[in-house]
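re: ur question from yesterday

yeah so i grabbed the chain u mentioned. its 245 aa long if i counted rite. heres the sequnce exactly as i have it in my notes:
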Amino acid sequence: MNEKLPAKVENCPIIDALIEIRFETTLVRSAVFGVIYSSIMDEYQGRVINLPILQLPEQIRDVDPTLKFKPLYRIEGDRFIVQIGPDVLCISSKIPYVGWNAFVRHSSKIIHKIISSNIIKRVVRIGHRYVNFFEGDITDRLTLSFSMTEGYDAENILIRSEVKDGEFVDTLQYSNNATYKATQSSCEQHGSLIDIDVFREYDDNCFIFNVEEEINKAHSCGKKLFFSLLKPVLLNDLNPIYDEK
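ran it thru and got these structure tokens back, copy pasting raw so excuse formatting
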């Protein structure tokens, strides 16, 4: 991999891009959505959609660790989607991906608005996830190494690994047998997925006082890992663009 990372790629493989914060609130849980929605209404004026998890009793959602931080409501803006729960906020880019500069600028703006509403006592975790889809099996064009016992061929590969990068943890998942539909009416595509989810947990108020810096750090971790996975032949297929300076 080149030491200098591309600023962007022309053939962008991103099919999902998400920034998530989990927080402790100063309010009762039932009041959180209304206050957040009031603070971002100028950015998100679409219809509020109740997510299916709302059908589960609150007592079950609160004690199940896999459900506790799931959003309950979803609102679509022009280029972004926000999902809100009693202790979680997720901001995602609509596809086609808007690009990092626009994504971090919008996400930081929304997070600052919510922080200014004084409902967040402490951000306990940031997550930043990218899901990338490639047509066909790209295993031999990755730097990942995978082998089977002699006499066996691996056809359907699913790899999951975690790597530490400073204060962040990168969770990598790769599959060479994935399907993707860009829209409800489009044809199903078969190919490979590279799913990178970066997170950091906090014991203090570091995130609240360094919103953009912490989000950019998470993005840098995921970006480094992603491009480290690509052999030159695959990177060139994406038509990378580098900053001139």
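noticed a couple things. The CA atoms of residues 149 and 155 lie 13 Å apart. also The chain is about 25% helix and 35% strand.
anyway ttyl
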